[in-house]
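the two lines:
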Amino acid sequence: MKDRTVLHIEDNEYNRKIVRQLLSRTSFRLLEAVDGEEGLAVAQRELPDLILMDVQLPRLSGLDATRLLRADPRTAKIPLVVVTSFALSGDDRRAMDAGASAYLAKPYSPRDLMALINRFLPEN
Amino acid sequence: MRRASSADRIAPPMMALLASPVGALVRAVARIRTSVHIKLLAGFLLITLLFIAMTAVSLLMVAETARQTNLLDQAHERVGWSRQIEHALAMQMHFTSMALLAQADGSVGFILRENNRFNDTLARLETAAPPEERALIQAIRGAQEDAMATVADIANALRDRRLADAMTALRTRQEPTYQKIEGLVGSLVAAEETRMTRLRTSISAARARSLRLMAGFAVASVVVALSGGFVISWSFILPVREAHGFLSDVAEGRFGGTIVVPNRDEFGALAERMNWMSRELHRLDDEQRVAAETLRGLNERLALASRAKSEFLANMSHELRTPLNAILGFTEIMLDELYGEVPPSLREPLVDIQTNGRHLLGLINDVLDLSKIEAGRLELGAGEYSVQEIVDVVHASLKSLAFEKGLAFGTRVPAEIPPAWGDGRRLTQCLLNLAGNALKFTRQGRVEIDVRLDDGWLTYRVIDTGIGIPKEEVENIFAEFRQVDTTITKEYGGTGLGLSITKRLVEMHGGRIGVESELGKGSTFFFTVPLHADGGVA
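prediction for all of em together
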């Protein structure tokens, strides 16, 4: 089951690197995008099994990208985790309103992130 | 602009009266440049003078009537005397005739007595008679002297027995003289009677005149009193009514109006003062409006600045969290040996990085929370929560720290506490702050969390055996950036924001926070919130 794909949309190289490191020991295939527009294009092209979406992204915000993905019937059902920064209260609610399946507050513990990924994509 | 209240309305007949020349008189009286006191005094004085004049005139009348009555009495007396003269004359004639009949002069004594009486009476009459009657009286006296001369002749003739001569004298001289005297006395009486008639007419005329005069005075007094009262009172009432309307305007917030009154008395001065007050109020109102406008503008700018600050902090927070996420994330996956086995010599510095990274995260969260509270942008996510769960979470988070410091760390939550309503996440933060502080400032002994429900209020208590707080610092302990002294910050760490944030959060729940402490023995921090707290905004 090497086919299961996770798309990580995040503009910070180091944070992408952590996820890359986390998933390197698993069977998941990792796709990366560095801004909202690219993330949207990759998601619509590749149709991944799980999307990790940062809230604050250049060009297209994470929440707007989430709404567009939810509006597209091909990507509407893909589990999507929004990574919020809890800068202002209500970020979590806005994430859920935009159509997120779950949210994770930054800074997150890599262990918690793995647990969340495993919840949506259980390993055999 | 002016709204007529019930007191402002003037009855229509009064309006008509005020529009007439009477109204002009009212305004003229108002315009007189003198005090109300003098005006009232003048009014009363005018009426009093009228009454005095009336009294004087009536006294004069009474005096005049008395004088005329007196004259009448005198005339009456004089008529009486004239009658006596006539009588004396008749008696003289009678005695003269008697002397002739008796052919004796014995009667002469009687005649002389009557003559004396005649002369006495005539003398009295002369003294009392008015000048125009003097001539008549002189004539009577002259005739009487003639008559007495004749009487003497007759008496001589009788003594000499010259009867014929006596008879002749009587017939030719005495009788005509007597007739003349009779005629003169008759004229005198007639004159006096004419006089009396005239006096009577004059008295009754005077009486009628005085009656008319008195009636005239009475009517004039009443009219003057009424119109004077009307004019003076309305010259006071009009400015008072004006002032009434004006003050209603002021009371309803319409400043800057003025009142116009013709008065140049105290009411005029009052109106002047009111106009001054009105101008001042108007000016102050304008100033206040300008100030309010300025403040509004300032407030808007401040709100904008505050929003900008909040947005900046939100962005900053994100910017700070992103690298912090990398630091904490890499440290964790290194410690989890995702990069391979960690040599024992590296494990401790890695844990140090992790501890300090978490501490930095706590500081960032505190600063952000406080800025959100200050910007009024922190909202409580009210919902049902379990008190036991909150205490458990706090206990679980801090038990390793307590263990490391060798402190006893216990909790006490009564089992019968029902589910509560409020922002459980924020209340957890509050209790975590208090318990974290207690552990931080306690070197030995114990820290205990104790919860009680009393009459719908939940009291969370954190009891420690720590260093305590000096009395003079207790008041400041909940202020921002306050720690008992700055050396504590160095020794124990922390931003000094935790208690301040906790206080705000508790207050947002409608509760209050407090502390009881004894220096060197320990502190008890507590906060009380309603079992069912509605969400609020800081």
